[in-house]
Amino acid sequence: MKELVFATNNKYKAEEIQSILGSQYKILTLTDIGCTVDIPETGNSFEENAILKSSYVTEHYQQDCFADDSGLEIEALNNEPGIYSARYSGIKDDRINLELVLQRMEGVTNRKARFKTVISLMKNGKNTLFEGVIEGTIRQVPAGDQGFGYDPVFEPFGYNVTFAQMSMTEKNRISHRAIAMQKLIAFLKGQADPS
Ligand code: IMP
């Protein structure tokens, strides 16, 4: 079975994709390959950061790998917080970062925003990118207690609830991450190369 590293330490995310891919690939996490480095994400875009992570693994561990990078882009804030989503306020605290977004959006009428995920797959020395986007709006007041990050203020178009008011199953059916993952999975399943 061909091994493929997912540049994450999130065991749950890795198990989820393993169960979809079945026996075609064996998914390994960073922990599985003994990589304990906090891989630097110094790029200027989701694409660059995803590529930095996947190529770090292929260079240092000689293994095929994919990596994802995500964030929230708010139109009225020139697409901020974007690649700084995890640390918008300067610290990695979901509640404080969400409050900063609401503060910067005070009195702003254009509430359009999107979540974006980019996955970089480094396979046989070649990089392929997969993108997932979900459009929506930023609520004035947070609602819901599911999920993480900016979920309580993000209402996807066509719904009248926030991501934080959806069950994990429901969010995973429509999210930016799910869309990008489905594209990756379709690509991997479609590849005739069983080596
Ligand atoms: P990551 O690249 O998936 O680790 O995401 C980086 C940051 O973007 C997270 O720490 C969150 O602040 C934000 N983010 C990404 N995806 C989501 C989501 O599905 N819901 C809420 N926030 C998210």
Structure description:
With 195 residues, the chain is of the alpha/beta class. It has one domain (2-190): Maf protein. It is 31% helix and 25% strand. The chain contains 5 helices and 7 strands. It has helices at residues 11-21, 46-61, 94-104, 168-174, 176-190, and strands at 2-6, 25-28, 65-74, 80-81, 112-123, 126-138, 154-156. Strands 1, 2, 3, 4, 5, 6 and 7 form a 7-stranded mixed β-sheet that branches. The longest helix has 16 residues, at 46-61. The model has no long low-confidence stretch (mean pLDDT 94). The structure holds inosinic acid. Inosinic acid binds next to strand 3.
What order do the helices and strands come in, and which of them pair?
Layout lengths: L1 E5 L4 H11 L3 E4 L17 H16 L3 E10 L5 E2 L12 H11 L7 E12 L2 E13 L15 E3 L11 H7 L1 H15 L5
Parallel strand pairs: 1-2, 1-3
Antiparallel strand pairs: 3-4, 3-5, 5-6, 6-7
The chain binds inosinic acid.
Largest sheet: 7 strands, mixed
Q: Which runs of at least 5 residues are low in confidence (pLDDT < 50)?
A: none
| CATH class placement | Alpha Beta
Helix percent reads 25-40%
What is the overall silhouette?
globular
Number of helices: 5
Number of strands: 7
Q: How many domains in all?
A: 1
N-to-C SSE string, H for helix and E for strand: EHEHEEHEEEHH
Catalogue the ligands.
inosinic acid
Percent strand equals 25-35%
Radius of gyration: 17 Å
**Helix/strand structural class:** alpha/beta
Alpha-carbon distance between the two ends: 8 Å
CATH topology: Maf protein
Q: Give average pLDDT, whole number.
A: 94
Q: So, CATH architecture? A: Alpha-Beta Complex
